[in-house]
Design a protein that fits this description.
mainly alpha, globular
C-alpha cells in the first residue's frame, strides 16, 4: 500500500486580499477604516493600563484622549495632503478627493504632532502634566500603528521594490505603479513596519520597567525607535512621493526627528531624572494642592457667623425673643401726685 500523501501547494508569496470593502445593509464597510479604529482602541487600552498603573485616573485620561484622537486624525490627513499635494491639486485632479480619507493617505507625523497638540490643550485645561501622559501613551501609539499598517495591506498600497522572496507581497495589476506592470510580487513594507513597531512597543515597555522613564523620555524613546526603522523601510518603497536632495521627504523627516528625539531624551535624563508623581492632584482625579488650600481657606457657616451659638440660634435672636422685663407695680410703688393746676411742682406748661 502506498504511503504517498498528496502534496499541498503553498504559494511562495503573500497573497493580497481579494477585497477591502464589504457592503452591509447597503453601507460600505471598509477594512482600512476598521484597521484604524482597531489601532485607536488597542493603543488607548495599552496607554490606559500604563496610566492607571502609575496612579493616574482613567476618566481623566479618557477626557484627554477625547481631544487627542480627533486632532490626530485631522493632522494625519493634513500632513498627507500637504506633502502629496500633486495628487489632489492641479490639472486633471479633483481637490474634493483630499477629503476621501477612506481611500488611504494618513501621515503618521501629522497624526502624532496634531494628536500631541490636542493632548497638550486638554492637559492644560485639566492641569495634568502633559509629558506624563505622553510617556503613558508612547507604546500604545506604536501598537496603534501596527494595526493601521494592515489597512495599507487591504488597500494594496505602500509596498516596496519587486522581490522573489517567499514573503513577497502579491499586488494586483491595477495597483502596480507605472514601470512595474511585469512584476507580480513586491517587498511587503507595511509588514516590515508593523513588525518593527512591535519591537518598539517591547523596547519602550521593557526600558521603562527597568529605568522608570519620566518627563517625556518614554515618548522620546518611542520616536527615536520608530524613526530609526522608518528611515530604512521608507527607502524601500516605490510609491510616488516628493524628494529632497536625493532622498524621499519622509526619510528626511525620520532622520531629523530621530536626532531631536535622542537629544531630548539625553537632556531630560540630565535635567529631570525620575518620574512625575501623578498619584495626587488632577492627574489622579483629585483636587490640586492650590484648590484644596482654597477650599480649606473658605470659612464655614459657623465661622462666617460667629454670633451663632452651638444650638444654631443667633444670639441677637435669642435676646429679641426673650420675654420683656416686668414693669414696676404701680400699686407697690405709688408715685406722688402732682397738682398740675395749683401745685408748686407745676412747670407752667399749662394754664
Amino acid at each position: 500500500m502506498s504511503s504517498l500523501i498528496p502534496a499541498v501547494m503553498v504559494p511562495a508569496f503573500i497573497p493580497s486580499p481579494s477585497q477591502g470593502v464589504w457592503h452591509v445593509l447597503g453601507l460600505p464597510l471598509r477594512a482600512y477604516a476598521l484597521c484604524i479604529l482597531a489601532g485607536i482602541f488597542v493603543g488607548y487600552w495599552l496607554g490606559r493600563r500604563r496610566w492607571v498603573a502609575r496612579g493616574g485616573s482613567a476618566p481623566v485620561l479618557a477626557d484627554i484622549m477625547f481631544w487627542a484622537i480627533p486632532f490626530g486624525l485631522v493632522g494625519a490627513r493634513i500632513y498627507h495632503v500637504v506633502t502629496d499635494a500633486e495628487l489632489y491639486f492641479g490639472a486633471g485632479r479633483h481637490p474634493i478627493d483630499a477629503l476621501k480619507i477612506w481611500h488611504g493617505g494618513l501621515g503618521i507625523w501629522g497624526a502624532v504632532g496634531f494628536g500631541a497638540l490636542g493632548a497638550w490643550i486638554a492637559c492644560r485645561r485639566a492641569k495634568v502634566p502633559f509629558l506624563a501622559v505622553a510617556d503613558a501613551m508612547a507604546p500604545g501609539i506604536a501598537l496603534a500603528q501596527v494595526f493601521g499598517r494592515f489597512g495599507n495591506y487591504f488597500n494594496q498600497e505602500l509596498f516596496g521594490r519587486p522581490t522573489t522572496k517567499p514573503w513577497g507581497l502579491e499586488i494586483s495589476p491595477e495597483h502596480r505603479p507605472a514601470g512595474y506592470a511585469d512584476f507580480a510580487t513586491f517587498h511587503p513594507t507595511f509588514l516590515y513596519e508593523a513588525v518593527w513597531n512591535l519591537g518598539v512597543v517591547a523596547l519602550v515597555i521593557l526600558v521603562d520597567r527597568r529605568f522608570k522613564l519620566g518627563h517625556g523620555r518614554a515618548f522620546f524613546l518611542y520616536v527615536a525607535g520608530y524613526t530609526a526603522g522608518r528611515a530604512w523601510i521608507e527607502n524601500m518603497r516605490i510609491d510616488t512621493v516628493n524628494h529632497f536632495l536625493g532622498l524621499r521627504l519622509n526619510v528626511w523627516t525620520a532622520l531629523i526627528l530621530f536626532v531631536l528625539a535622542v537629544a531630548a531624551f539625553v537632556l531630560s535624563a540630565k535635567r529631570r531624572p525620575g518620574q512625575e508623581d501623578i498619584t495626587t492632584g488632577p492627574a489622579a482625579g483629585k483636587p490640586s494642592d492650590s484648590e484644596k488650600a482654597a477650599t480649606d481657606a473658605t470659612p464655614t457657616d459657623d465661622e462666617a457667623n460667629p454670633t451663632t451659638d452651638s444650638t444654631g440660634t443667633d444670639a441677637g435672636d435669642s435676646a429679641a425673643s426673650a420675654e420683656p422685663a416686668e414693669e414696676p407695680d404701680a400699686e407697690a410703688n405709688p408715685q406722688p401726685k402732682v397738682d398740675v393746676k395749683n401745685g408748686a411742682d407745676s412747670d407752667g406748661s399749662r394754664d
